[in-house]
Design brief:
- Helices cover about 50% and strands about 0% of the residues.
- It is mainly α.
- The N terminus is likely disordered.
- Among the domains are: about 55 residues; about 50 residues, no CATH class.
- The protein contains 7 helices and no strands.
Length: about 180
């Protein structure tokens, strides 16, 4: 399940959801219909049916929260160390320029901590830490604004014009001009 911040549920959120499932158990015992339970608890009927199956096979413990879906491979100290390395910049980490890429951060984590991540895994980790994708704030040194304006005024209008057909006529066999 994905969440906007990429961090998943907190312990309080997991507990709140578990309470909703346990409230459903009380209604299961009273033989309340699925649609009615879903409406009362403001969840989908599909969730209620899944909870009912889990309750029938495992009882109330079958609906208990199983905790965090996946634990981070790095400890709190290592995460702080990784953030410090990211703040220091790619040059300080031994890369040739000032661009952090996901692949570079993955390589940095492997080199510093001996932990293997995939590129998407690094992306999820960074989002959980509050990092976002950024675009360059500066423009290229080689950029020539004058040449760009000339291109916009002279070249672009010509490129934007509709192309005329190479020859007038039709490919239709029923039109006299095509015979």
């Amino acid at each position: 399940m994905r969440y906007a911040q990429g961090g998943g549920l907190t312990a309080a959120d997991r507990s709140r959801r578990e309470q909703v499932r346990l409230a459903a158990v009380e209604r299961f015992e009273q033989r309340v219909p699925t649609a009615e339970i879903a409406a009362e608890l403001r969840v989908t009927g599909r969730s209620v049916r899944r909870w009912r199956r889990a309750w029938e096979t495992g009882g109330p413990p079958g609906l208990a929260s199983r905790g965090q879906a996946a634990r981070c491979r790095l400890g709190a100290g290592q995460l702080a160390e990784l953030e410090a390395a990211l703040e220091a910049g790619p040059l300080a980490a031994g890369f040739g320029d000032q661009r952090w890429t996901l692949a570079r951060i993955r390589d940095l984590a492997a080199r510093k901590f001996g932990v293997q991540y995939t590129v998407p895994g690094i992306w999820y980790l960074l989002r959980r830490l509050g990092w976002t994708c950024q675009l360059g704030a500066r423009r290229a040194v080689e950029r020539d604004d004058g040449a760009i304006e000339v291109w916009k005024k002279e070249t672009w209008p010509r490129a934007k014009q509709r192309r005329r057909p190479s020859a007038a006529g039709s490919s239709s066999k029923t039109r006299p001009a095509s015979r």
